[in-house]
Amino acid sequence: MGIIQVFVLSLLFFVLFFGIGFILNMLLRSTWVMAFIFPLIVILIVDDVPMTDYVTSPITAFPALWADLLALQFVDVFILMTGFIGTIVSGIVIRILRKKGYQMF
After folding, report:
1. How far is CA 90 from the centre of its chain?
2. Given 5, 64, 75, 87, which residue has the most CB atoms within 10 angstroms?
3. What is the 3-state secondary structure (H, E, C) of the chain?
């Protein structure tokens, strides 16, 4: 993957998760909701095991998840981390806006 592709993907993940986090924080009136939901989204992106297998057969599902997480390349981890940074920044922005007196929903 080229450096330009990594830059564009990182920027897209940052903006995407910033926007989703901002909207969720605004609607649910909770600052860090998306930061707690983000690991579930990463599991959905990375793992190809159905979510029901984590309940019905966790002995095979969790090692498969761990193997998939360890198989990620540095570029993939970097792109996912920029998405996580976007969720954190959205929480910070919501806190600043609320502190300055802006009422969101």
Report:
1. 12
2. 87
3. CCHHHHHHHHHHHHHHHHHHHHHHHHHHCCCCHHHHHHHHHHHHHHCCCCCCHHHHCHHHHHHHHHHHHHCCCHHHHHHHHHHHHHHHHHHHHHHHHHHCCCCCC
